[in-house]
Specification:
The chain is mainly alpha-helical. The chain has helices at about 45-50, 55-60, 65-80, 85-110, 115-130, 165-170, 185-200, 235-250, 255-270, 315-330, 355-375, 380-385, 390-400, 405-415, 420-425, 430-435, and strands at about 10, 135, 145, 150, 160, 290, 295-300, 310. One of its GO terms (cellular component) is cytoplasm.
Amino acid sequence: MHGNKSATIRLSDSQAPTCPIFPLRGSSVTAQKLVPIFDNLNYMANPFRQGFNVSEPTLALTTIPANALNADALCCAQFLYTYRGSLDTFASYRREIERFVQWCWFVEGLCLSEVRRQHIEAFVHFCQAPPLSWIGVKSVQRFQNGDGLRIANPAWRPFVVKVSKRDHRLGADPDPKQYDLSQSALQALFSVLSTFFNYLIQEEAVALNPVAQIRQKGKFLRKRQAVSTVRRLSEAQWHEVLMAIEAVLHEDPDKWQRSLFIVSCLFGLYLRISELAASDRWQPEMEHFWKDAQGNWWFTTVGKGNKERDISVSDAMLTALRRYRQYLGLTPLPLIGDHTPLIAKIRGKGGIASTRQIRFIVQECFDLATLRLKAQGESEEAAALETATVHWLRHTGISEDVKTRPREHVRDDAGHGSSAITDRYIDVERQARHASARAKKINPT
């Protein structure tokens, strides 16, 4: 979708725009057709070199002149392309920019240069209660391949409503009427838009940052008096996860030996799931475990912000590594030049590239542990584990280590930008505060 011609996007008959679809400024939002604008990185050519024009279907949805719309789209594409170093960052920024320009162009009829403080506030209110036609019930690809073309997916929506894992298992279905914009999503909205307008100012595309003009963001964003509690597994839950895997190892050793190593890495090395999966940015290999001149073992990874870091490897993690490598028929510990994928596919070559697949693998382990806890009568522990996500393993590993290790050491191994982030995992003061409150009386007599 680049160059002097419009993007090659085709709409099905059900998507063909109807007239009138464009509401006048200040009017209510009609049931308009929605067309995604920005594709995945692997389908986006360098907009700095080849430009970026919106598709004909997109032009049909607004009264904004084509030259103005294409100028806005080029600015957006170039801004997003600067975040190509991280697929996760690109995806999150694309989500916010897509929502914003959809609203500006198709709801308000605004070019980016026309946006002012009151428009940002109106957009925030819009995001807090978007029309049902803008809300989907599952995440889908924006575009699909068809007849050699990238075709707009009619099921795509700017907003998605979801239910928790536990509610989904109980039979609950996502309901667009129950959509709620979380505080973290609001914070992301303000952060991305402010960064975007600062970029536009530097590119001399706009004269001011309307987000910075909002003096009372507190009416949208709540402030916590204390640091929020980090979600993690209890000692009993983590123990049952390990025991559950051990109990089924004999059933399918290829599968469960790999699962055991995955959860060990997430807990023992504080890895993010994106640091386990292979990508264009980083392919985790066995040689990324290495020994220094003093005989200490380290693991090298690339994390958020494309930052490389070395993680100290504990004796227990080294034991887990030996066990997995011996099962694979490799040397007990990696040698220089060992390009074996860290988390290999069971069928096929190469490492697992899908974070979704890793999530599924860990979820299977959680499910087995949940069944064990229920069988033991630990219903509360089981119910809590049903809500856990893969990222909780990283949180749990950090929380356990910060009890005994210097926080600066944990900070560097975890890849935290500051000690303040690591401090979130230290809950000694919270425990003491609760202990001092335990004896409080309602009736002093």
